[in-house]
């Protein structure tokens, strides 16, 4: 059986975990936490990075830092993971879903402005498959309407938009280091704060709502509770594992991109015949090889192909069910405008196995079985 995903172990993961244990520092905030944050800040040029126990926590931090309140509205696509909406619904916001583009599965930047009301506080673009949304247009809309941009860059570590790392373009950006991501700590994430005016508040929120950071720097004589916050940091063991992966970030990314390209080359003939559709990478976007998907003609064909591939030992998978069609999505959100592509495109999409060091022969076998299904 070819699995859909297999977490990478590429460097000093075991050794660094051993060092953390020997240091007798297993809770948050130790040497490896600091090294991961420093790596993110230096590699991507954000103002400050905060490690988190998940991308979900990173997004929840962002919602707190942004001061989202009951009655506020937040614009995002419906084709995303539930955490994207949960983070803001937990603060009492109304989620306003906007249709996606059929070519990238990202939010349609041309439909955002018409969804803006006097209650809108933020736009949350999701960079699906590590391929960037049209961030210039989104930033333009945000600046015109005095809105925040909070990037859900869970899948986009090492991806860029016209040379700028995803996660660093908006006011804040959240990464995931879940087991299914390019770089992993099992469960983990990070929040990148790019807007200077949020740094002090971010430090308070990340310290459970206390002024501990200012106290440790001698800027105040009392360490006390000053704002809402929570316990977001991961353990040192998670960060020790992750740091070993970040040290090999270029190697991991190069390997995944080569596998992504091999899929694209092998499946191009089927796409040219119009039997399937393959990913589109817009100009100015450099992705990270996070996932490779194809689209069947319709939902029934998609489901038949998934079953066929599984019968051949290939664990292909569908992806998100649009949030606006869910019970919670109907309670906490609304879809603005026409659902032209969100539902129909999500029902056609199949994710193919892609992970670090997947064998070329496995990719060739998967492509051959897809060809056999159609011919």
Please give the structural blueprint.
Blueprint (H helix, E strand, L loop, with lengths): L12 H10 L8 H14 L3 E5 L2 H11 L7 E5 L4 H8 L4 E5 L21 E4 L11 H11 L2 E5 L7 E2 L2 E2 L6 E5 L12 E5 L5 H8 L5 H5 L19 H11 L2 H24 L12 E2 L5 E4 L3 H13 L15 H6 E3 L6 H5 L2 E4 L7 H15 L1
Parallel strand pairs: 2-3, 2-4, 3-12, 4-5, 5-8
Antiparallel strand pairs: 1-9, 6-7, 6-10, 8-9, 11-13
Helix pairs in contact: 1-8, 2-8, 3-4, 3-6, 9-13
Describe the structure.
- The chain has two domains: 234 residues, Aspartate Aminotransferase, domain 2, CATH 3.40.640; 126 residues, Alpha-Beta Complex (Aspartate Aminotransferase, domain 1), CATH 3.90.1150.10.
- Helix content is 38%, strand content 14%.
- An eight-stranded mixed β-sheet has the order 1-9-8-5-4-2-3-12, sandwiched between helices. A three-stranded antiparallel β-sheet has the order 7-6-10, with no helix packed on it. It has a two-stranded antiparallel ribbon with strand order 11-13.
- A hairpin with a 2-residue loop joins strand 6 and strand 7.
- Helix 3 packs parallel to helix 4.
- The model has no long low-confidence stretch (mean pLDDT 96).
């Amino acid at each position: 059986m070819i699995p859909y995903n297999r977490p990478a172990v590429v460097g000093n993961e075991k050794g660094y975990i051993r060092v953390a244990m020997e240091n007798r520092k297993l809770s948050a905030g130790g040497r490896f936490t600091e090294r991961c944050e420093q790596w993110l800040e230096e590699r991507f040029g954000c103002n400050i990075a905060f490690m988190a126990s998940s991308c979900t926590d990173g997004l929840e931090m962002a919602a707190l830092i942004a001061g989202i309140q009951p009655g506020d509205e937040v614009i995002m696509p419906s084709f995303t993971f539930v955490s994207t909406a949960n983070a803001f619904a937990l603060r009492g916001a109304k989620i306003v879903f906007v249709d996606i583009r059929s070519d990238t599965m990202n939010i349609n930047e041309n439909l955002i402005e018409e969804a803006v009301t006097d209650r809108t506080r933020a736009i949350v673009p999701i960079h699906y498959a590590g391929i960037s949304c049209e961030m210039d247009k989104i930033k333009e809309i945000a600046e015109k309407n005095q809105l925040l941009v909070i990037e859900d860059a869970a899948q986009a570590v090492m991806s860029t938009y016209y040379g700028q790392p995803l996660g660093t373009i908006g006011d804040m950006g959240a990464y995931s280091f879940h087991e299914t991501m390019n770089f992993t700590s099992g469960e983990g994430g990070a929040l990148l704060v790019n807007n200077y005016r949020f740094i002090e508040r971010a430090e308070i929120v990340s310290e459970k709502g206390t002024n501990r950071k200012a106290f440790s720097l001698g800027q105040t004589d009392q360490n006390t509770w000053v704002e809402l916050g929570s316990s977001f940091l991961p353990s040192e063991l998670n960060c020790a594992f992750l740091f070993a992966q970040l040290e090999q970030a270029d190697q991991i990314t190069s390997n995944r991109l080569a596998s992504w390209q091999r899929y694209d080359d092998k499946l191009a003939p089927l796409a040219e015949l119009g039997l399937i559709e393959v990913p589109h990478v817009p100009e100015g976007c450099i992705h990270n090889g996070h996932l490779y998907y194809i689209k069947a003609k319709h939902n029934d064909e998609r489901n038949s192909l998934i079953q066929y591939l599984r019968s051949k030992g290939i664990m292909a998978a569908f992806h998100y069910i649009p949030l606006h069609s869910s019970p919670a999505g109907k309670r906490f959100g609304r879809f603005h405008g026409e659902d032209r592509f969100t539902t129909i495109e999500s029902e056609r999409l199949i994710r193919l196995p892609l992970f670090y060091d997947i064998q070329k022969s496995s990719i060739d076998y998967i492509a051959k079985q897809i060809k056999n299904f159609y011919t």
